[in-house]
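thought: fold this chain, then report.
action: predict
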Amino acid sequence: MSGDSAISCAPLVVDSVEDLYWDDEADVVVTGFGGAGAVASIQARELGASVIALDRFAGGGATAYSGGVIYSGGTRHQRESGYEDTAEEMYNYLDAEGNAVAASTLRRFCEGSNADIEWLESQGVPYGGKVFEEKTAFPPDGYWIYYSGNEKMPEFSGVAKPAPRGHRVARKGFAGAFYYETLREAALAKGARLLVHSPVSRLVVSRDNQVLGVEIKPLPQALWKKHLALYKVVHPWLPFNGGRAGRAIARAKVLELSASQARLIRARKGVILATGGFNNNIEMLSQHRPVLANNFKKLLRLGSLGDDGRGIRMAELAGGATALMENIGVARTLAPPNVFAHGVIVNQGGERFVNEAAYAFVVGSSIIEQAGGGKAWLLLESRDFWRGVRQSFFTGGNFLMWGAPALLNIFFGGSRRANSLAGLARKISVDAAALETTIAEFNQRACHGAADPLGKLAELVKPLKNRPFYAINLSLDNTFSPAQMMTMGGLVVDEDSGAVKRADGSSITGLYAAGRSAVGICSNGYMSGLSIADTVFSGRRAGRSAAEIPWPSR
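observation:
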């Protein structure tokens, strides 16, 4: 297991629960206290189960770094904004996008999405109305609902009535931290006990294959400040941070290995793994997506230092099955600036290969499949290029998140300018004849109002004809425009209970998984808000199952 052996030990196997001295115990033990872990803890406590939550650091995970968007349909906030949406239309859309779960599970998710957002509101998370209509990766402050996926695209609008389902937390800016802190306070107020700086080293399993609890190796309190400082270095939105982040990841492991005193925590009813994905585990990325491992330092890995796959590894070593590990979303954000959605994206062969107005993860995931390790360029005519520059300065209070990165790439990422397409092709090492044919065909369809073969909305299709022409570098290896990345695959779970399953389809008694540790709603396709929605769906499911099911005597 190479570099993972230090963080994922084989389970401690015993004859029975009485064979060990347990340092602490609860009905439910939650490992990982980010969004999914907090939700699972709250749900279990609401059903009367005692809860011990463990976090390798101080809590938060990927959720605290997110925009705080949840994908939900048929909500009162939509109705108050003049949109009548239903669970059926939401189901039709997500089904058309493709998903990794059974149709019955997807339907249950959609039918419960309104209840989930109301449940979050009951915990203190605020939502609101006012819809942002334009194509964007994140709406300006004051707009709390938007089209966060591909709902308006022709291939989907024909099977499902489009509706804005991305619900922002009604707070300024990226509100993932506020969302998480609200859930954290709710969990603690309801009586969940949180043990911080307590890495889980292995599962404790009986010989008849029931999970009894976990072993942790908590750091002495004197090391907490240093441990947390390393955690903060690995910030998913900081560009040019790959070297520092890599060193922090290594130092955190060394620091944790110095904590030799193990403690055993018994779970009378179940252990819930909510430890996130494996964004920050280069060995696992090398195994499942080498092209991303090759660009590891240049990516914005959308997770925390805790997203190193250890929960997935521990469950595998206890017999758990994994799936869709190669499904790793990569995002290329074109809008804002919104005018860039008018451009044309081409590969080294001078060919279009993706709808430029598609969701960012669709664009990015298409780019990494292109030749040259993911080479691509956005072509713009002069007027739209300079409009995009101006728009980048006015991004509704989100300049540092969207405007500044766009400008950084425009001026330092290798943008090229030429008075002819052939000249531009030479400067970006693209097949000139193929590029001229591609643009000629695109312009002809645009001028005659013909449908775009890649599904671009008619109002976004306009000819590329005003010289000079510009090419903006969207390639995966562009240091000045790091793509965003998030792992989607994980442990296979029973979709009714969240219990971790073995390769033969049987469930491991007493072990559950939620959030990005598990295969879930967004494992085959992602749009903004779907991951948080899945942490709520899967976290509540695991919390209910672990709290309610009476386990055999063990």
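thought: worth noting. The two ends are 31 Å apart (CA to CA).
final: tokens above.
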